[in-house]
Input
Amino acid sequence: MDNSIKNRFPIFVARPGLVYLDSGATALKPDTAIEAVSGYYRDLSANVGRGLYRTAEETSARFETVRERAARFVGADPEEIVFTRNTTEGINLLEYSLADRVTEGDVIVVTALEHHSNFLPWKRLAKRSGTELRIVPFDIEGRLNPDSLREHIDGRTKIFAFSAVSNVLGSVNDVTALIRAAKAINPGIITVVDAAQAAGHMAVDAREWDCDFLALSGHKMYGPTGVGLLYGKTALLRTLEPYQVGGGMILDSTSETPVYMDAPQRFEAGTPDIAAVLGLEAAIGFVEEIGTDAIHSHEIALATKAAKRLTETFGDSIRILGPATRENGIISFTMDGIHPHDIAQVLGERDICIRAGEHCASPLHRELGIPASARASFSVYNTETDIDRLIEGLKGAVNLFKK
Ligand code: PMP
Output
């Protein structure tokens, strides 16, 4: 990846020394996404689906164009795409709307890899409905093994929710194989994929994966905050109870039983974050222009080099978590004698941004037997210089805490 990509990110003009290694939390934004957001406020500033004047009609048309573009991006049809705020909202929507599908005696299956956003909603649903929550462990490489699903999924299992990519270990799951294995055990099972760490970094294809639902966040794939996507297979989506009720999703509110619009509008009550949706279109354009394959290999190449340099420099005093070889840009680690928070703070003082803590994945850290970890996540705008700066920063942390 050459420097022209980095030049597309205006933050590096304002902050030339910034070493941003926290794309797992949120990605930086390219010029086109920023312009799309400000362009909406500057040139349109109308609501969607309501007005009969030109700016309103144009805004509505562009909004629906983004739905078409987003649908193609995840291998779906436009009516299968619901705009949400983020992955968390998409999964909470499902928790609410799938509640009438589970009763006492049923089983919900999640995994030990999950981010709290794909764990707590299911835990709450299980508690509320009196269903059993089962947790599939990950293997030594940090992946879910399709062959092991038989031990956890059975005829009583109604929902199986798991992530495509772990936000801590960077391990990439074989989503197609996992869904095939789950459906072979129980053809009626509803599968939910958390694609938050996959989108923008590798191909996301709902059709190929054959999942029933998929959730992602725009801000993790170079788009604005405030917009996410929930994909749902039409046949299922149309039968779900709306999550929120209000304007923009109703056909008849005066009858005894309100009549809602069809999916996806029935899940989009109220004014959406229009600027963010238009920004998301630009982000999709950016990802498609470079290509997910090129992005993925760039991230793997950098994380692989970083892992090598880390072990060469710090030897046995560093423990890199997850797969033996890097599967994406995420690399989490612990260092002997230094708490991850201290590492992140020392680096932060040098404008090197990494993440420390549980990364919203306590079950995973419990499974690994560690209280916390440090995470560097590489993305499209990172370079080898960032690895140098990371190593220098870590040497500084080691020196400081040795004293
Ligand atoms: N799932 C995974 C795997 C994540 O990494 C994240 C964000 N760290 C989320 C869900 C939640 O995303 P958001 O905060 O955008 O809803």
